[in-house]
Amino acid sequence: MRLPIVHHPAYTADIPEDHRFPMRKYAEVARWLKETDPQGALYDFHEPAPISRDDLLRVHAREYVDQVLSCTVPHAVAREIGFPMTESVSFRAQCATGGSLLTAMLALEHGVACNTAGGSHHARIAQGAGFCVFNDVAVAVRAVQAMRMVRRVLIIDLDVHQGDGTADIFAHDTSVFTLSLHSEKNYPVRKKASTLDVPLEDGMEDDEYLSILEDTLKRVLTTFKADLVFFNAGVDPHHDDRLGRLALSDEGLRKREELVFKLVRNEGLPLAGVLGGGYSYNLRLLVNRHSNLYRVAAKYL
User: Fold this and answer.
1) Residue from 24, 4, 25, 5 nearest 16 by CA
2) pTM of the entire predicted model
3) Going by fewer Cβ within 10 Å, which terminus of the chain is more open, N or C?
4) CATH value at residue 202
5) 17 within domain boundaries
6) For 170-236, where are the alpha helices, taking DSSP H only?
7) Which domain holds residue 148?
8) pLDDT tens, 146-174?
């Protein structure tokens, strides 16, 4: 059985060459997947449709949605997001969000599926922030709930930054459990309360991190009975990530993915993986770290 992979060429938006966001990583991750599976034996690619306006409005404010779709986001908001709100950036956000919805639907069908983008967890109800335009996971969760495909969803957010937007969106919704393991002193400065936050000290290395994650995830899986799990597999906890403050190694990140998939799939739960953050300067090394998500996921169908 092949791992469903969701990818769209529009994930790589046109932004200035000297921009600090590594936009090329999305195309490079897809290229890596295809080059390592030339016969198509491991990965089954799916191209998503752009997310609908109605799906976006289940999560985001009408005024903000229409500003993004028409590329009229106020300069102050675009600055907080970190991207110029061009047609290319707007369409990327629509496709990445549609991609996370398709990933959820494929995970429910096949047990596991992964997006080559997604994890825009800083996007709030009324606006985006921190390189996040729409909160793709939140929109996908609301869509599959509206279609009555699931009732209860667990979001495991292991990006190095706290998922403040996701936490805020689901703050009063007991059908969605938001779990965030993140660098305590990192962005955002003003954090929102997740269902469970696990703030981590600067410089934490593999063994301590993995022990905390295992204990936490076992407890959550015992107490919260989900119908679907989303996994934000950001690789910015790596020790040489320029926007992280933790100190995981390449092997630590691989073991993290193994741990999440093993514990979730042992419970028989469908798992939808999204790419999350990763900001190292070396694109080849960055893609290699992101590739762990797909290599590990393919073993748990």
Assistant:
1) 24
2) 0.97
3) N
4) 3.40.800.20
5) no
6) 206-223
7) 3-12+22-298
8) 999 999 999 999 999 999 999 999 999 99
